[in-house]
Amino acid sequence: MIEIKDILHLIGNELKDGAEQAERFREFIEQDKWSSEQIKGWLDECINKSSGAHDPYNRAFQDLAISLGKRLGFEIEYGRYVGKSGEDNYDGVWRRENGDTIVLEVKTSTWPIGSVTQLGDYLEKLSKETEKGSIFGLYIIGKGDIQPLTEQILGSKYKDRMRLVLYEDLMEIINLKEELVPVIGEKEAIEKVQNLLLPVESINIGNIVRLIIEIATTKSTVEEEPGEGKSEEFAKKEEPWTKAELLSYLKDSTPYQRLLLAALVQVDKEPATSKTVTFLMNEIAKRRPSEGIDKKITGRDIAGARAGLKMRRKPLEKEDIIESSWSHSEKDHIYKIKEDYKQIVTDWVKGEKLWIKEEIG
Question: Is residue 330 part of a domain?
Answer without folding.
Answer: yes
